[in-house]
Amino acid sequence: MNTKKAVKDLYVTLKDKGFENGLYHLSTHMCAAQRLEKIKAIRDDLDNKERVICVSTQLIEAGVDVSFDTVIRSLAGLDSIAQAAGRCNRHGEVETGEVFVIEHKEENLTRAEHIKKGGKFARYILRDIEQDATLFEGTGALGQYTMTHYFTQFYSEFAGQTNYPSKKHTGQSLYNLLLTRNSGSAENLDKKLGIVGRASFKDVGKEFCVIDEQTTDILVPYTPKGNSTQQSGADLIAELTSSEWLKDVSGFLKRAQHFTISVHLHVLKGLGNDGYIRPVEFENTNISPLYVLLDNAYDDKFGLNEEGTSVNLEAYTGEF
User: Fold this and answer.
1) Can you name the residues that pair with 292 across neighbouring β-strands?
2) d(CA 205, CA 151)
3) Pairing state between β 260-264 and 215-219
4) DSSP three-state, residue 264
5) Which residues contact 108 (CB under 8 A, 6 or more apart)?
6) Are 246 and 233 in contact (CB under 8 A)?
7) Could you tell me the strand order of the sheet in which 260-264 lies?
8) In what residue span(s) does the Helicase C-terminal domain sit (predicted)?
9) For every one of its 320 residues, what pLDDT tens digit does the chain have, with 9 covering 90 and above?
10) DSSP letter, residue 104
């Protein structure tokens, strides 16, 4: 599914209809330690030929080695569909695996324009191939020629964004700033000195963000199952409160990585307004902000549990 809300709603619906055994929920509202446990349990069930229904966001589409007989993917770009298809019959367990693409009418993609537009182009392509299988050299929905056509359409749609328009220099892109100088006097000086291609690295460095919408880390009180010797998120939170300042902050943050989740600003504000998080103060003010989540806002099924809070999951799209 494309959104955390759609994933959670479907999980709850399946559970209510009696599919609880072998039913799993996965999203980045779970810390890494919890996700790894869930994925291991899924693999164990699959190895034992147990029935497994895994309802997940896009996190399962990359770097997760699991294989299902059937995959159902909510409509998105062909690249996402291809990633999801890679979880189907991955190791040739059955003669033929099946991948279905559906349009989930209840998914709200207003905050995920790239997913929405990718799905639009994928819909057109899949429809055209259904009507004429010889299109795109007959390579099918995920073939080389099909994917080339898809990405040509997709990047044309976002042409104004792919060069990263500069907010400071009107009419310029960050890409152009890496190739040219803004100042005429600087260009003249470059010519006199024989310098070619001097770039505005400082300006680009200040403006460029890999992900436009920034996230903040929250340390969660998750305790791994079946291993009493392993440090838990609750242990790390207790460590924070046991002394005024941590002696080894970098070491602590490294240990905390498996017990943190990243949330967008509106989620952070909602949790803060409801009193479910508290900020962590470090002696070194250059360290990125970190918050601690209270016990009653985290559970074993969904990770971050927004029930009873003012967090709007409808606006929290995908893994972005």
Assistant:
1) 219, 278
2) 27
3) antiparallel
4) strand
5) 3, 5, 314, 315, 317
6) no
7) 260-264, 215-219, 290-293, 277-280
8) 8-92
9) 999 999 999 999 999 999 999 999 999 999 999 999 999 999 999 999 999 999 999 999 888 999 999 999 999 999 999 999 999 999 999 999 999 999 998 899 988 899 999 999 999 999 999 999 999 999 999 999 999 999 999 999 987 777 777 777 777 777 777 776 554 444 554 555 444 455 677 777 777 776 666 789 999 999 998 766 678 999 999 988 776 667 788 888 999 999 999 998 888 998 999 899 999 877 776 778 899 999 889 998 999 987 766 666 554 444 43
10) -
- Residue 281 DSSP label: P
CB 100, CB 71: distance < 8 Å: yes
Query: Domain-by-domain residue ranges, the chain?
Result: 1-161, 165-207, 215-315
Tokens at residue 78, please?
């062909």
Closest CA to 57 of 12, 4, 19, 106: 4
Query: Phi/psi of residue 97, each to 5°?
Result: -90, 165
* Domain boundaries 1-161, CATH class: alpha beta
Number of Cβ atoms within 10 Å of the Cβ of 288: 9
Per-residue exposure over 2-22, b if at least 16 CB sit within 10 Å of its own CB, e if not = bbbbbbbbbbeeebeeeeeee
Joined together, the tokens standing for residue 226 give: 């079946």
Among 36, 95, 88, which Cα is nearest to 61's? 88
Total length of the chain: 320
Whether 15 and 23 have beta carbons less than 8 Å apart is answered as: yes
> Which long-range contacts does 224-231 make (Cβ < 8 Å, 24+ apart)?
224/33, 224/34, 224/37, 225/37, 231/255
